[in-house]
Amino acid sequence: MTTTAPDVAAARRLEGIACLVGNTPLLAVRLSVRGSERTIYAKAEHLNLTGSIKDRMTLHMLRRAYATGALRPGEPIIEATSGNTGISFAALGRSLGHPVTIFMPDYMSLERRALIGSFGAEIALVSADEGGFRCSISRAEETAARLGDAFLPRQFSNQDNCDAHTVATGPEIWWQLQAAFVEPDAFVAGVGTGGTIMGVGRYLRRKRPDCRLHPVEPASSAVLAGGPGGRHRIQGVCDEFIPPIVDLDFLDEPVLVADGDAILMAQKLATTLGLGVGISSGANFLGAVLVQERLGPEAAVATVFADDNKKYLSTDLLHDEPVEDGYVSPGVELLGYRAIRRSCHTCCDPASCREAPPAGFVPDDEPLPACPRPRRGGAGG
Ligand SMILES: Cc1ncc(COP(=O)(O)O)c(C=O)c1O
């Protein structure tokens, strides 16, 4: 494969985008469950460039596709998604100059469609009667086959999706927890493609083989638990089939959360802590609470706030949600949070380090603060 000037320009742009993706803070959220205080760790993935954890996968896949030649400058990108992946590929793909077409079920929030369109991508909607999500995937495949030179990320079956979290999200969580002198007893996350739980899980289990990994899914559509698919309001998770990249033997048992409970929890995170996160983040938080109930209040349980609340302004997230028997969120009191910032292990990029002044740099009279990292072979400086 020969490298051309447009390849180099696209690679440079990708590295610019990379500064806006990942290395998010880890929030140590203090809470009280029926009067017993504890902490749950949540990665603030809603702070990524387009407001969701999907930017990590998109960036990783685009890097890999450029490196292997699977995607060349100007070639079309085509993907089936329930929204966040579409928003992410639209933003990153368009910024690299690619035409982007997104196949998506028509029952996803209006904001998702509007955002994908706002980045200049084309949207092809598929109704539930036509086959919803599964049909979106087959239409994306057919269109790509017709075009010949299109890049299809295939997020449900592409291991690069998991790898994005094994090389970045997992190590970030591990080292941020280490900064708080904590090792994770469990990681829980809702499953859309399964990339997050499989990828983060692989890294955490490498570091700590007995770390539990619990997928979270809607109680009304508990497909991973062996139940039938059904309607639910936790957009982004459970597309009514088990994605090929999910290895159920690698995971612990699923945790079921009612969608109304997830909505109430997400509302509480916003109204009490000012954390504007989406419905699946409410579900993840409740999943973490339930796992901690089983392991004990001292257990270190980590999860992700997968996206922000801006894609749900037209949904039930902004409406009064009735409390039903068995809901967990009414017993959860949120007390506050501490943010654990980036950790040097995953944040430091020697290539862009400015500790050594670039040629021609004129120092002013304000010295740089000393880097507190211990230097190799010497004392901290
Ligand atoms: C809002 C939201 N939460 C959770 C997920 C699940 O993440 P994953 O696909 O890595 O399983 C997604 C995936 O699109 C999502 O959009």
Summarize the structure.
The protein has 381 residues and is of the alpha/beta class. The chain has helices at 5-18, 54-68, 84-95, 110-118, 132-147, 159-179, 195-207, 259-273, 279-295, 344-347; strands at residues 26-33, 36-44, 77-80, 100-105, 122-126, 186-190, 212-218, 255-257, 301-305, 332-340. A hairpin with a 2-residue loop joins strand 1 and strand 2 (36-44).
What does this entry look like structurally?
It is a single chain. The protein is an alpha/beta fold and 381 residues long. It folds into two domains: 5-51 and 158-340, Rossmann fold, CATH 3.40.50.1100; 54-147, 3-Layer(aba) Sandwich (Rossmann fold), CATH 3.40.50. 36% of the residues lie in helices and 16% in strands. It has helices spanning 5-18, 54-68, 84-95, 110-118, 132-147, 159-179, 195-207, 259-273, 279-295, 344-347; strands spanning 26-33, 36-44, 77-80, 100-105, 122-126, 186-190, 212-218, 255-257, 301-305, 332-340. A seven-stranded mixed beta sheet has the order 8-7-6-9-2-1-10, sandwiched between helices. Helix 1 packs antiparallel against helix 2 (54-68) and helix 8 packs across helix 9 (279-295). The longest helix has 21 residues, at 159-179. The termini are far apart. Mean pLDDT is 92; it is low at 377-381.
